[in-house]
Amino acid sequence: MRILIVGAPNSPCAAAAILAMEKGAPVFHAKDREQAIGMLRADFGINVLLAEVGSSIREIVLQLEAERFLVPLVAYDTRNDVRAAITAMRAGAKECISVPPDPEIVAAMLVAVADGTSDRVDGEEAVALMVEVAEQVKPSGAVARRTLAEVERDLILETLRHCLGNRTHAAQILGISVRTLRNKLQEYAAAGLAVPRPFGGDLPGAA
What we know:
The chain has helices spanning 12-22, 33-41, 57-66, 82-90, 103-115, 123-137, 148-162, 167-174, 178-190, and strands spanning 3-6, 27-30, 48-52, 73-77, 95-98, 194-196, 202-204. By secondary structure, the protein is α/β, with parallel strands linked by helices. The chain is built from nine helices and seven strands; from the N terminus they run βαβαβαβαβαααααββ. Residues 140-145 and 201-207 have low confidence and may be disordered. The termini are far apart. The protein has two domains: 3-137, Rossmann fold, CATH 3.40.50; 148-204, Homeodomain-like (Arc Repressor Mutant, subunit A, Orthogonal Bundle), CATH 1.10.10.60.
């Protein structure tokens, strides 16, 4: 499987890409969206893109769609930033994986993924393999394969606890309306989750 890393030259994954290439793995690096698209146009046989959480993921996804490149994009994060994961997945990333900030460990992950598969692997298989290997090297406490809804839920509940249950304050921090927040809390409560009540503490089943 051929992997294209998109990120700044000084990023951990860019350094990991160089190490992986030195080991003979079919891994490539593009410093930005323009270079990445250029490599796809040149038909390097890329199976999956791996882009930094903070990069222009939405622009990359739109360009892929405009030029009909059926190559999935996986976002990566070295800080286990839940907000960044949500933003990346909303922008069109198929998955968001947490990886260690150590380039050598990430390089080993890339080699394992790239060398352990054929070039004929399809997009869904490529994403699944990337996530599977990332889970084996994820940092302690990191969030690997989770749905957008799960990541969003945890962020909302964590923010609400930080605000001691104050719905208005939490909604402002999250950038959503109080009504939207209350609706989501009702969903969580109906699912049996402990929802923070005003002035602190968890109250099961109360939104």
